[in-house]
Design a protein that fits this description.
About 75% of the residues lie in helices and about 0% in strands. It contains ten helices and no strands. Helix 2 packs across helix 8 (about 185-210). It is elongated. The chain starts with a helix and ends with a helix. The relative contact order is 0.14.
């Protein structure tokens, strides 16, 4: 029997992302006790009491992993939402205005893109101070650039279309033209960009938490869980394997779903043309 591996991977990726969201919702409705310390279970391996074992303080890794999923999802959605709104607005406005404003916007985008995104986020988080809100701000300052560049490139092409020129001839305000005649036509590439940005933010947030400038204890984070387990790799590797596997599966699933969305949207665009 022939198995379509591409379809299988796509369904598995969707299942992983659904589990990620379900874990976040579950811990929001019924938050587990992630601060409970059981001295008898310190560095305990996976077993009947906890499927993923216990950490160096005797806390359940499974419970902390679920709460870490909620933390990761909240930060990721917030950062991508802020970055997408800000970057899209700047990109469309820059393309529409043209002239000196467009040149200045391109210069700012190029300056931001000259720095490695993750290193810039680490520097900003270090300047702002550790914490969840500061991590969101630092990652958003870095993340808007990709959306701005994509939105500007798409808007420059659509700006010369007949329906846009007709709207301008009828005296339609510029903001209505950008919202009703340009933005809907560039949503497809922006959605694809957002999916890949999700994967990048998951890794970036985990990196900030791993370095100690992201989510702070006692709030669990996948990155901080890996940092705490690094000292016990030889005696309790499950402390690192569980959050590491979670990051790997979520990022891989987001990328696979993003590839599928890009292929589907390209097909639709080709069909229309």
């Amino acid at each position: 029997m022939f198995i379509n591996f591409e379809t299988s991977f796509r369904y598995l990726s969707a299942a992983v992302l659904a589990a990620w969201v379900a874990a976040a919702v579950f811990t929001l409705v019924l938050p587990p006790d992630v601060r409970h310390i059981a001295l008898a279970h310190i560095l305990g391996p996976p077993g009947a009491g906890s499927l993923l074992g216990y950490d160096d303080l005797g806390r359940s890794i499974a419970a902390r992993l679920l709460v870490g999923a909620r933390t990761s999802l909240m930060i990721t959605v917030a950062v991508v939402g802020i970055s997408a709104c800000l970057g899209t607005a700047v990109g469309i406005a820059s393309a529409w205005a043209g002239g000196a404003w467009d040149k200045m916007s391109v210069a700012v985008i190029d300056i931001f893109m000259a720095f490695p995104g993750l290193l810039l986020a680490i520097a900003l988080a270090g300047l702002l101070g550790a914490g969840l809100s500061n991590a969101v701000i630092a990652l958003s300052v870095v993340g808007w650039v990709g959306f701005a560049r994509l939105a500007r490139a798409q808007a420059l092409t659509l700006k010369q279309r007949e329906h846009v020129q007709a709207a301008r001839a009828f005296g339609v305000p510029a903001y209505r033209i950008m919202l009703r005649h340009i933005l809907p036509l560039i949503l497809a590439p922006l959605i694809v960009q957002a999916t890949f940005e999700l994967a990048g933010v998951v890794i970036a947030e985990s990196t900030l938490s791993f370095l100690g400038i992201g989510v702070q204890p006692p709030q669990p984070s996948w990155g901080s869980m890996i940092r705490d387990g690094m000292r016990y790799m030889l005696v309790a590797p499950h402390m690192v394997l569980a959050p590491g596997a979670a990051i790997f599966l979520v990022v891989l699933s987001i990328n696979l779903v993003g590839d599928h969305l890009r292929d589907r949207m390209d097909v639709k665009l080709k069909t229309r043309s």
